[in-house]
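ingest -> fold -> write
write: protein_1
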Amino acid sequence: MPEEQRHGRGLLDTSVVIDMEILDPSRLPHEVAISSVTMAELAAGPHATIDPEERGRRQDRLQRAEAAFDPIPFDTDAARAYGRVFSAVTAAGRKARGARAVDLLIAATALAAGLPLYTRNGDDLGAVHDLVEMVVL
């Protein structure tokens, strides 16, 4: 995305936070935000592997995110927005439960906050593109 088209602010999903070091910063919004749901995923990350090196990388990523971000909470507005997101996904004939539900909670946070959602998982979130502006990296 050219500099003049960059958003002023955007919500990064967990996939973007994980890949932050390899992404071109000029493709990100000027001001980045994350959801408390992303912080929860990052907090679970070190516990989801038995490999000590990977656990260390995930712990480092979590600590850097905790230092860099003041997450947007998943609040009542986001909970209401989740109903709209859930409806759009199920109307498109896709599953809105299981692992995908976390991505949808993050999309609902973006919808409630009126922010574009930056993701690496555009295919998983395609059903909500009419509700949330998506930037697929």
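write: protein_2
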Amino acid sequence: MEYGFPIGMPVCRRLESKLYEVRSNISAKRIARVIFTIEASYMILLHGFIKKTQKTPKSDLDLALKRKKDIT
């Protein structure tokens, strides 16, 4: 991410307006995600989790949205 944003798939994807997800394989069977936003040229990490399903869980997305509201 430090080399340029937006970097696009498969490393990063937009979830909704000003909310993005960085994808990372941390082992052969474990996938990590970090949800972030960009504010005033800063990348603000809102939530990180181990992904267990194909779709981003609503609880993880809701937590990131709540934290985003707290900072904006």
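write: annotation protein_2
The radius of gyration is 12 Å.
Residues 58-71 form the longest helix (14 residues).
pipeline exit 0
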